[in-house]
Write a structure and sequence with these properties.
Length: 174
Amino acid sequence: MRRVTLEDIYVHPITQKYVRRSGMAHAISVAHNAYELAKQYNVNPDWAVKAGFLHDIGHYTWYRDGEWDYEQYQRFDIHPIKGAERAHKLLVRLGEDQNAAKEIAHAILFHTESALPADGFKRTPLQQVVHLADENDKQPNDAHHYRHLNKKEELSQIRVLDYKLNKENLLTGS
Ligand SMILES: [Fe+2]
Ligand SMILES: [Fe+2]
């Protein structure tokens, strides 16, 4: 039995505030990509989907003179660190298994290059899945952060993933 569903995470005000800031449509696409990649990499699909969905929860606004300052943001961005912490807190509050919360937080921490330790660091399969799931959804000029779905469509896509994950959970008992 999954302790926390994707819908539990989706409806939470913290998710609505921070995931929506960086793009709910992007988060949902990355969650779907992570579900598919989880099979190839033989990692826990529930963890992959949750990490994919929450990977950009650490984004924050970075404006200069009313304009988003991409150059500054890219140089000094720490959204993977903020995201790992926010996601971990949210998951634990929702009652997630502690080990799952830790692995998901680490996958968020290492989803881009910005928080990777120097030299020779190798992502675990789960971390690689989340990294690739994000890369596969990226569009020129960061357009992936600005795509929109209506809320009904968002929820229906979230429920599709929950349905698949619940079914696998019943089959494997994991
Ligand atoms: Fe990101
Ligand atoms: Fe992303």
